[in-house]
């Protein structure tokens, strides 16, 4: 279960096992063992290291928090996006702003930017 969550979050971030291992400071083989469920009880210290580059919390990796509230680092942008959409629905925001941000994200994604990079740039 922990391995499945790590793999899912890693793939959402567009990271390879090697990239995540380097960024987290854990061995590639150990990370692979976690993802393939050969190691089912990694220490909290290891999970803390893995959580940082995934922009998440150990609680999410352990399944103690709903991933819908913290999705691999896009939580800060997802909340801003949801707030903007609520304003649009309530008639308090300009819909053209939503369209502009959406078009910018799509253009950046077509140019090869990762989705999270697109959201980061659109929020600026």
UniProtKB/TrEMBL annotation:
This protein's UniProt keywords: DNA-binding
Residue ranges, annotated region (Disordered): 105-124
InterPro entries associated with the record: Cro/C1-type_HTH, Lambda_DNA-bd_dom_sf, TransReg_Diox_bact_type
PROSITE patterns: HTH_CROC1
Superkingdom of the source species: Bacteria
Domain HTH cro/C1-type: 6-61
Transmembrane segments: none
PANTHER family: HTH-TYPE TRANSCRIPTIONAL REGULATOR, HTH-TYPE TRANSCRIPTIONAL REGULATOR SINR
Protein name per its UniProtKB record: Helix-turn-helix domain-containing protein
Organism of origin: Paenibacillus aurantiacus
């Amino acid at each position: 279960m922990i391995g499945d969550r790590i793999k899912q979050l890693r793939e959402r971030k567009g990271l390879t096992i090697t990239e995540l291992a380097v960024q987290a400071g854990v061995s590639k083989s150990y990370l692979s063992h976690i993802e393939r469920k050969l190691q089912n009880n990694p220490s909290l210290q290891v999970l803390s290291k893995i959580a940082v580059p995934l922009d998440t919390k150990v609680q999410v990796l352990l399944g103690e928090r709903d991933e819908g509230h913290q999705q691999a680092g896009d939580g800060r942008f997802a909340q801003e996006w949801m707030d903007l959409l609520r304003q649009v629905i309530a008639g308090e925001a300009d819909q053209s702003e939503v369209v502009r941000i959406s078009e910018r994200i799509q253009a950046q994604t077509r140019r090869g930017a990762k989705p999270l990079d697109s959201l980061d740039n659109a929020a600026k």
